[in-house]
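Still learning folds. Look over my entry:

…
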Amino acid sequence: MPTNYQVLVNHEEQYALYPVARELPDGWTAAGFSGTEEECVAHVDARWSDMRPRSVRAAAGASRDGGS
């Protein structure tokens, strides 16, 4: 029987695939999508174009804007 996965996201807006039948790991929340591994990978690929953590993206944006 194939494993169904769900897409998870953490506070840094990073994505992961996780088996539906398992309890969510600490620090991760369901992103509202589940399916086969291939479907979940396609879902993540369509949404996660910048793999830098949110804090790094924010720092880079602040430095470009003259912030600290």
Observations:
- Residues 23 and 29 are 11 Å apart (CA to CA).
- The first strand starts at residue 5 and ends at 10.
